[in-house]
Amino acid sequence: MVVHTDIIREEKTGHNVVGFINNNKPDTVVIGAHYDHLGFGGEGSLYRGEPAIHNGADDNASGVAVLMHLATDLQHMPNAKNNNYLFIAFSGEAKGLYGSNWWSQHPTLAIDSLNYMINMDMVGRLDSTNDVAINSIGTSPSWPGITKLKGSNLNIKTTEGGIGPSDHTSFYLQGVPAIHFFTGSEEDYHKPTDDADKVNYPGMLRIARYIEAVITTLNDSTKLAFTKTADTDTSKTPRFSVTLGVVPDYMYDGKGLRIDGITEGKRPPKPD
To answer: Are 263 and 46 in contact (CB under 8 A)?
Structure first.
C-alpha cells in the first residue's frame, strides 16, 4: 500500500515596530518589549475551553506600556543624553523569539554600536511583596550595581544567565549586555483572564522610574563590558514550553520547585 500526503507549510509575516531617539552619540541603548500574544489561544495557551480572546494585558501589554512611557520621558531627561535610544516592540516572541532574533541578525544599527539592552516582559503584576526580577545580570559586570539603587522600595531578585525565555536572549547571543525586568507569573498566564482589570498600573510606573534610574546611573561615556555567562548551549535561540502541566513560580529562589499554577485538563505524569 502506498500512502501519499500533502505537506502544507503555513507562513505568516510579523512586523517589529521601531523608534529612535538620536542624541548624536556613538552608542545606543536598546529598550524592548514584545507586543504579540496568543490571539484566540491555540498553541501556547493554557486555557481549555471554547476559543476566547487572549488579550495578554500582563504578557505583554504591560511591557509595551512601560516602553512607551520610557520613550516619552527619555526625550526630556538631561541626565540621560550620553546615549541614543532605540525602542523596539517585537513580534513573534510567543512563537520562539522570532522578532528579536530577526532584528539581531538583520540589525538596523550596527551591533557593535549597541551599549546595552533592557527588556520588559510581564511587568504588570507587582504585588504586596514588591518582588521584581532582573534576569541575566551576569551579562555585564556593571549590572549587579543597579540592584543597589536607593529609593525604589522594590525587592530585587536576580538571575545570572544570559539565556532566558524572552527577547533579551537574542541580544545576549550577539554579545550585547542584556537584562530582563519581570514581576512574576500568575494563574492567568496564557489564559483569557490575563486582562486589564488585573494590572497594577502604579506598580508599572514604579518599574519605569526604576529603569530610568538605571539609565541615568549608567549615563556616562563608558560602554558596558559584555560577559558570557555559564549557559550550556548558546548556539541557538531557545524554545520554552510547559511540559508537566504546571506553571513554575519563576520568582521563587528557594530549594526545589514551587508551582504557581496548573494547566487545566492536564496533570504531571504518574511515576512508573
So the answer is: yes
- What dihedral do alpha carbons 266, 163, 180, 110 form, nearest 10°? -140
Q: Report how far apart, in Å, the C-alpha atoms of 245 and of each of 47, 59, 159, 269, 270 are.
A: 12, 19, 24, 9, 12
What are the chain's domains? Answer: 17-262 (3.40.630.10)
84-90 and 17-21 as β-strands: parallel, antiparallel, unpaired?
A: antiparallel
Task: Please write the tens of the pLDDT for every residue from 62-75.
Answer: 999 999 999 999 99
Q: Which residue's entry shows cell 524572552? A: 166
**What is the DSSP code (8-state) at residue 156?**
E
Q: Is the whole-model pTM more than 0.85? A: no
Helices assigned H by DSSP within 159-236: 168-172, 201-217
Distance CA 18, CA 91 (A): 11
Between 264 and 56, name the one with better pLDDT.
56
Helix, strand, coil in percent for the chain, rounding step 5: 25, 15, 60
Task: Say how many C-beta atoms besides its own lie within 10 A of residue 160's C-beta.
Answer: 15
More confident residue, 17 or 187: 17
Cis status of the peptide bond prior to 84, with omega within 30 of 0? no
Average pLDDT, the chain: 86
d(CA 146, CA 90): 25
Question: What integer pLDDT is reported at residue 146 of this predicted model?
Answer: 93
